[in-house]
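Whiteboard transcription, Tuesday session. T.W. wrote the structure tokens on the left side:
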């Protein structure tokens, strides 16, 4: 049986989730750089202004990351599930594409000088 309190709790949780989602998206701005990490270590930092394809070949795995018109996408991966390849292109800060089987992550940073700096944990 569903009670009024259950419905009220559901509505409160949905509203709270929407507020948190809005705040996380509203805080992001168009990024200026893409940081590629492999197994938690920085592989490279690339400008979003230069159209290019980066080939990441590490630990017998292959990923190709394409930067085109200020957006980044994973154009190829030899992983089985292909979730990273089907992910839509990213261009805002705090967005990322992750290939879990190959341990490759692409993250967008920039927008302000403060965001361009890596934190102590990333180094």
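and on the right, the sequence the group agreed on:
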């Amino acid at each position: 049986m569903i009670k009024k309190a259950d419905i009220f709790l559901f509505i409160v949780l949905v509203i709270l989730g929407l507020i948190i989602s809005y705040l996380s998206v509203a805080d992001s701005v168009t990024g200026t750089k893409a940081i590629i990490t492999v197994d938690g270590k920085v592989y490279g930092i690339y400008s979003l202004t230069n159209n290019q394809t980066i080939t990441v070949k590490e630990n017998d795995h292959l990923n190709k990351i394409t930067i085109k018109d200020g957006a980044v996408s994973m154009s190829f991966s030899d992983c089985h599930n292909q979730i990273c390849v089907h992910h839509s292109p990213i261009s805002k800060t705090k967005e990322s594409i992750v290939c879990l089987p190959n341990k490759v992550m692409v993250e967008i940073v920039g927008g302000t000088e403060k965001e361009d700096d890596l934190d102590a944990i990333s180094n």
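Someone added at the bottom: Residues 5 and 11 are 10 Å apart (CA to CA).
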